[in-house]
Amino acid sequence: MAQYSRVSGNVGLITLQNPPVNALSAAVRQGIVDTVKRALGDPEVKSVVICGQNGVFCGGADIREFGTHMTGPPLVPMIHAIEMADKPVVAAIEGVALGGGLELALGCHYRIAHTKAKVGLPEVTLGLLPAAGGTQRLPRLTGLPAAIALITTGRQITTAEALKLSIVDQVTDYSAVDTAVKFAKSVAERSLDGRRVSERPCPCPPDVDALFEAAMQKVRQSARGAIAPVACVQALQAAATMPYALGMQREKELMATLFTSGQARALQYSFFAQRAVGRWSLPSGARWDGSKPRPIRKTAVIGLGTMGRGITVSLAQAGLSVIAVEAQEKPLKEAQQAISGMLQRGAKRRGGAPPLDLITYSANLQAVADVDLVIEAVFEDVALKKQLFQHLSAICKPEAFLCTNTSALDIDLLASQSRHPELVVGMHFFAPAHVMKLLEVVHGSRSSPEAVATAMNLGKQMGKVGVAVGNCHGFVGNRMLKPYLEQGLFLLEEGATPEMVDGALEEFGFAMGLFRMSDLSGIDVGWRVRKGEGLVQPGASVRVRQGRRYSPLGDLLYEQGRFGQKTGRGWYRYDNRHEAKPDPWLNNFLEDYRARHGLAARRIECQEVLERCLYTLINEGFRILEEGIAAGPEDIDVIYVLGYGWPKHRGGPMYYASMVGLIKVLERLEHYLRAHPDVPSLQPCSLLRRLVASGSPPIHKWRKIIKKTQSHL
Ligand SMILES: C[C@H](O)[C@H](C)C(=O)SCCNC(=O)CCNC(=O)[C@H](O)C(C)(C)COP(=O)([O-])OP(=O)([O-])OC[C@H]1O[C@@H](n2cnc3c(N)ncnc32)[C@H](O)[C@@H]1OP(=O)([O-])[O-]
């Protein structure tokens, strides 16, 4: 757990050992205490180096221990003992030094880092704060502005940036361990005055009050309702205004308010859920560890609209060659300029040169004859896509994977156009495709496990979080969005306003309520989807379609040319492109509409908005689980947090349902179904009923129950 050796004559070398990231488990912490004691007590040892096994320093406290009875020596006194040592202790940082790992390094007298290593204090992303002195030591090195930025965002930085911020003392292209050992020898006799960070004053700019006021406003604004960022700012305020010991006390008090909070539990659930989805399994029994991905070197993207451009950028940034195809010369040229610009801007942010040479542009489909994998992102029209798959199947080499970025169309239908349907799989990206981390990998009935594994692996290469999902209309995310949006429209018919519905959802933690989101994505986009589903009857406003309640409000706005932000008018008015303002026109329009349909407006509480919008979405999630479209609740939660703006600190829709209590979700759905019997999405799913009947087990036990019920199907 921590190995000790004496190297280079008189340097004590301590190596943390807890693969894969040398997390500070109880055993590792005990190992550090023992080996530090041994090094400091060894008269032959003049200086000490702490490093991590396998080229990783330390990924922080062991998150798996949270929520359990914590044993082993606490971090704070352990790091304090290192800092107060009378021999120089040097941290050799490779791979990552994150959270408690960086805090351990900050307690050392020197920090030597590899150029490729990353450092950071990501605790806030887990609903916590750096609780081993990070909030008190970091600002003493970097100053308050940088410390506030790093701790409230949890951002990882390069060691080059860390050097500029005085977080590390030296950066090397060679082995950080060898460099640190040499350095440790060179400082063995040097005084440690000034090297103990906690003994330094915390530099305070003259406008420190304004700095914290702005910081507090920013975190309250951006992380709507999240408590950890606020506590991070408060801990940093202590660093600025109190002596170190009192600041540490304050850090401890603030951490105590976070550690057992529901938000911390939700964020830690999310952390592990995002890793669990990589261990995918299909209803056929195919699994991640039994399916070998084929390496992909040459790719192609067909269709260079917004999505195609983002996908091309993402592939090139992952180091893959891309043939970017657009049928017409003019849009091809426009796309080439747009893609080059995106890559140049990305290179400025990420460092390095833009990978422009990885992309070849062509108006000729024949150009893709030799690629390993094609992603089509042409217009969402089933006839066009079917024809394209026929052509691709004839042009591409027989072993090429044919992937579609469709957001809802039937993968099996597209696969049936190909001579090799087993090599067809959905890769559903989310706009902007070069930014959004979510990727739905959609397996059709004939998609081979190799195709799914290859798409999932390619997604990982592109920096995406891939979730393997089944083939149904809307797959997982868009399918769950439907009842959510539908309830929003019904609430307008019954007396709510867009700003009232959005206010309730944004108060819950969504960055954007459903009507503002509809205005952003375009009311015309939604109209085209409904038209494709045969729901739009231009001019009609009858409120029943396919035997169920239907609200034509979106269709009527479309017919009025109110598409949302793009036309300056939608559910809101936009005097400047992005600022949504309530539109008196809409209120009059709703009043006329209600009068025309004999609908009496009533006062609707926020709680009803949340229950009807969120519980119908959750109910659809249970249907998706029951049908095996998603393998587990974690898959759905990752999709909704990463792709649909579900507030991170609430874990995801299924996690939220488990926290609210399944019995409450069931009861409220039954309540609303009685009030609206013509809305089938309010009909509680039988899996929800089964889970309630089996005592509402914790969410990590749902998979077993689902498997059991499916095995009886
Ligand atoms: C006192 C102190 O102030 C506070 C209180 C704290 O310190 S709180 C803790 C703060 N530290 C963090 O927030 C860092 C979290 N980890 C990461 O950011 C990343 O993991 C990584 C380090 C950048 C590596 O990324 P990766 O892409 O190479 O691999 P991976 O797939 O992500 O991870 C590989 C495997 O390692 C597991 N793992 C990673 N970090 C872990 C950790 N800190 N504890 C336990 N397990 C961890 C992870 O679950 C996965 O396991 P499995 O799922 O395969 O079984």
TrEMBL record:
Q: Which UniProt keywords apply?
A: Fatty acid metabolism, Isomerase, Lipid metabolism, Lyase, Multifunctional enzyme, NAD, Oxidoreductase, Peroxisome
Please state every residue range assigned to the domain named 3-hydroxyacyl-CoA dehydrogenase C-terminal.
474-574, 609-696
Q: Give the domain of life.
A: Eukaryota
Name the Pfam families on file: 3HCDH, 3HCDH_N, ECH_1
Location(s) in or outside the cell: Peroxisome
* Pathway stated in the Swiss-Prot or TrEMBL entry: Lipid metabolism; fatty acid beta-oxidation
User: EC annotation?
Assistant: 1.1.1.35, 4.2.1.17, 5.3.3.8
Keyword Isomerase in the entry? The reply is yes
Any one GO cellular component localisation term in the record: peroxisome
- MF terms (GO), sorted A to Z: (3S)-3-hydroxyacyl-CoA dehydrogenase (NAD+) activity; delta(3)-delta(2)-enoyl-CoA isomerase activity; enoyl-CoA hydratase activity; NAD+ binding
User: Which reactions appear under catalytic activity for this entry?
Assistant: a 4-saturated-(3S)-3-hydroxyacyl-CoA = a (3E)-enoyl-CoA + H2O; (2S,3S)-3-hydroxy-2-methylbutanoyl-CoA = (2E)-2-methylbut-2-enoyl-CoA + H2O; (3S)-hydroxyhexadecanedioyl-CoA + NAD(+) = 3-oxohexadecanedioyl-CoA + NADH + H(+); a (3Z)-enoyl-CoA = a 4-saturated (2E)-enoyl-CoA
What Gene Ontology biological process does one annotation of this record name? fatty acid beta-oxidation
Subunit structure, as described in the record: Monomer.
Regarding protein family, the annotation reads: Belongs to the enoyl-CoA hydratase/isomerase family.
Q: Write down what this protein is called.
A: Peroxisomal bifunctional enzyme
For this protein's source organism, the top of the classification is:
Eukaryota, Metazoa, Chordata, Craniata, Vertebrata
